[in-house]
Amino acid sequence: MAQLSNQLLEQIVEDSLPYASDGEVRPVIPMYDDTKKDVLGVTVWTGEEYFHAGKTDLYVPMQSTAKIVTLMLALNDFGKKRVFDMVGMEPMGDFFNSIGQLERHQTEKPFNPMINAGAIATAALVKGGSVEERFERFMTFIRQITGNPDLVMSEEIYEAEKSNGARNRALAYFMQSTGAMIMPPEEALDLYFRTNAVMMCTEDFARVGHFMANEGRDPETNIRLISPEHLRTVKSIMLTSGMYNSSGQFAVEAGFPLKSGVSGAIIGAVPGRMGIGIIGPAIDAKGNSTAGGALVKSLSNELDLNMFGVIEHEL
Amino acid sequence: MAQLSNQLLEQIVEDSLPYASDGEVRPVIPMYDDTKKDVLGVTVWTGEEYFHAGKTDLYVPMQSTAKIVTLMLALNDFGKKRVFDMVGMEPMGDFFNSIGQLERHQTEKPFNPMINAGAIATAALVKGGSVEERFERFMTFIRQITGNPDLVMSEEIYEAEKSNGARNRALAYFMQSTGAMIMPPEEALDLYFRTNAVMMCTEDFARVGHFMANEGRDPETNIRLISPEHLRTVKSIMLTSGMYNSSGQFAVEAGFPLKSGVSGAIIGAVPGRMGIGIIGPAIDAKGNSTAGGALVKSLSNELDLNMFGVIEHEL
Amino acid sequence: MAQLSNQLLEQIVEDSLPYASDGEVRPVIPMYDDTKKDVLGVTVWTGEEYFHAGKTDLYVPMQSTAKIVTLMLALNDFGKKRVFDMVGMEPMGDFFNSIGQLERHQTEKPFNPMINAGAIATAALVKGGSVEERFERFMTFIRQITGNPDLVMSEEIYEAEKSNGARNRALAYFMQSTGAMIMPPEEALDLYFRTNAVMMCTEDFARVGHFMANEGRDPETNIRLISPEHLRTVKSIMLTSGMYNSSGQFAVEAGFPLKSGVSGAIIGAVPGRMGIGIIGPAIDAKGNSTAGGALVKSLSNELDLNMFGVIEHEL
Amino acid sequence: MAQLSNQLLEQIVEDSLPYASDGEVRPVIPMYDDTKKDVLGVTVWTGEEYFHAGKTDLYVPMQSTAKIVTLMLALNDFGKKRVFDMVGMEPMGDFFNSIGQLERHQTEKPFNPMINAGAIATAALVKGGSVEERFERFMTFIRQITGNPDLVMSEEIYEAEKSNGARNRALAYFMQSTGAMIMPPEEALDLYFRTNAVMMCTEDFARVGHFMANEGRDPETNIRLISPEHLRTVKSIMLTSGMYNSSGQFAVEAGFPLKSGVSGAIIGAVPGRMGIGIIGPAIDAKGNSTAGGALVKSLSNELDLNMFGVIEHEL
Q: Which reactions appear under catalytic activity for this entry (chains A, B, C, D) (predicted)?
């Protein structure tokens, strides 16, 4: 087992960066062009020390990494029973925006909160008198758990999400037709699009991971912002469903809770040990950062982060 | 956190047994009739001590719990790359015997080794000159890891499996048609049906769990029978896919690797701590023991076995 | 072969009415309650004579029978090639509002213009500067082909369609996401909901059928309103797909082009012979009038309307 | 409307042959290689006169064209009710060998007798004490309706079908698992493979078409071999489902009952007018002869064969 250090991270970034060429940046993200393709950055936050490597001053939208924050808020607002009456906790085995899977299983609820349908249904479970108020509560929460009061939403990304939102609208209206939406679809979608557009750098992502890896305490006040049971629920679901259709592979190769977004961001939460924030904009067909995924697997091997057991380094 | 003891187990069995009435015994298992419905037994093996409660002298067929043993053998025989060239490692989100999922994804390989299609494909990756030889190797391996030289296959169960095997034949021939089978379908099926018919009691299942929870050592000789990397691979896949379509829920509510079979057997492997063997023949529509599932969740809460974090018992 | 007469029709209505008890009226149609369940009426228009039986003064919304009118308009406006670039002509084998079928086939176009998705896509192919103008053209056309200048849309039905339109919205946005919509989804949906709400009685439906059964001529002026090729295209698609998931059965048992709606309306077009208009509000799970379907089959047998051959009545 | 003549047919063959380059010959048919790709032949039999064009001395296996003969026999043997209790009459909208469609609809019966699953289920409804006896009855019937006592099965084709039959085995075993098979799967498959391997030339195919287009009489004895009702049932199903996933398109463009096979054979039955036999070995992705399909459409236009109406030739 290696010792965590900036040098080690630099080495892993160097080894992982070539995998960026296997992916593509997502064209509908306004700030993404080919100059962003060969980029990779990582921050690890142990609660005592930060470690950085690669490009760590890039701000990207949270995209699907926001799903875990929305889920934490919904669990706080409505409790486990009510939330999972509306959305399942099973991995899906289909693409993240699948609508046929909803229909095929003739169920009123989407498979889990990590797929788009499930996240839209979960967004409807964040309390507030209006979309603005619900989103303000999201922003307050994400600023608290990151300890970063400067986090903001990008209007440009939000507009792009909205104007490219046809598939997500289809999911929301389909759920309305089956009774799975407790809010007008356009309101839940609006909140969903906004959360996707919150901008973060690797350090912010690492802080979210650290918050979840530990006891869910406000880094400033040390007050618990979420119960341990809710936190472990979210982490379990991250492990089984956080990396889109490659979740099973990452459970094997990395072995700890992860959540990715199509901006190429990855949040890692190693229980009791560390939070990891990664940005690698080039993503594969399933939606995961190619270089970021390689980095996660190397880091897990080097630091023995796999919850299912260690391999022998001397072999 | 409670202390593990026979009394604790007895209490949990008593509390879990009523859930048996929510399930049904599987009629195609010859020895199963309604007298088996209200039955529940558990053995926990820590490597130092056995704990028992409920009915522990019942022998039932391994059914799908055999899938993890077949996978370990295949990994030993062909290595990780070759095995996962033939079968995936992603959770599926469909019923364990789904054939549409194979077709829909136009993939040559089944989703994972825990579903029937994947297990049949994995059976084809156990080395041997004939079905008999392959099955003999399976028996040698399962006797070694349980330390029980008396384990045998039930001819009666094997015949019942074969004569009710139409759906599994459909899966095998479908895979032959896509190139996912490297063995004549009837041979792979024959091996698969035999492994399903190996008879075990709760102690045997607990010993398999303990073998996997630790370093994969022969309990007699202490020699490693499988590499740590293979072992953690199997445990990851158990967590994401071991409990059929309820795997996500068990990842949340129990939080450690489990594998169930339609005989109502459950094997649990708590990394570094213990092996758990459960028999509760009444199963739900997804294939899991109803009373056994309740028992697993209680045990996880009482003994803080959830890998994703503990809840607060004083709350 | 029997002789067409009011008495014959009365007899067939009497024999068919009991099938109404096998169906249910669709609750979202405002005017439909249980008093409408045991209702059946039919008009046959040969071009020379009208025949009536049962309740023929009831006005019901066109619902899906409007799909054939929209398709005729779209063919007139854009021609066959352009229309069928946007929508297929294959029967589907899934329920009329299936969305999974769209996704599964990864096609940009819906199966055919008789299913909801296809009809919404077809509505986008009716020319006009606004939804109002497009709908006005629809009304002009339907008034022409029926020779009935009094046809109007029911505001109440239109509002009900809109407020129960979640599933259709899901279809429209899904198609927008794949490029199958050439109009903003809400506009195509608005036109679609309006056409569904045009009110007709059995005679009006029979006149549409007669228009299609013959040369597509304006009953007043005798001028052709649509080319013979477009007309036969629409009739072929009615035969293979006009009766939802029972189209195959009606091709066998009735054997001529039919189109049904969930209001219990059925339009029949027997090439060169007659138009048939039926209203029987109780529908089966697939969306077809149960009594109306029985009536269609009897009428086909009695009058030898089956295009695929006659049975022997003397047998 | 043109006059039917050998010259007309020659012209249509010449115009249609270039479409052969859009298709591929099916490699598992032993006699098919690239020399068969640019081949097209047609025979039309009016009951009074034969017309021929192109290559008409090629013998090819019936493949799926045998499905209509099997269906006629099953209807004769068990009657309409019993046959359609076991197999549906609805078009499917999925590929001819789809297995997911069976599963998705959780039905015990396949969609229709023209898809592989349905034809295998129908083969089980041909009476006989053994596969040999059932097949002998098939041969007797096909020799009768063609008036050709020399028809034989190709052992080579039969063996090829059997050894490439994994997908069809999957369908048969799947149906056994749902109760849709009333015969051991291997026996039904054996009969199915044999019927697929019966060898015919264009004249034989045209004779089958003529038998069906008229009253189903033995061409020698003029005795009815099948009831008019069964005959029209089969023709309806041909129209809605006979050309695989392009059945809807052929209903529009040709407009009369057709059945194709992957050998590139097409049987056409124009009610009351003629039988058509076509061989064009190059098939498209859906399984239909590309040149043969073009020929069918031209012939329909030239001779006004479309049952849904004529276009205006003077336009």
A: L-glutamine + H2O = L-glutamate + NH4(+)
